Amino acid sequence: MKRINCCLLFVFCFASIFPIQTVFSAENKTKKTAETNNSGPKAPPQIYRLSKEAAAAEECLKCIVVYGDTRTNHGVHKKIEKLISGRKPETIFHTGDMVSDGANNKEWDMFEEIVSGLRKNSEFFPVHGNHEWLAPNYFKVFGIINWFTYYSIDRHKIHFTVIDSEVPFWKGTWQYQWLESDLKKASLSDKTKFIAVLLHRPLYSSGLHGAKESPVLAQELAPLFEKYGVDIVVAGHDHDYERLYKNGIFYITAGGGGAPLYDKASEVKGSQVFIKSHHYLTLSVLKNELFFETFNELNEPIDSFKVKEKNKITR
Question: What is the pTM of this model?
Answer without folding.
Answer: 0.89
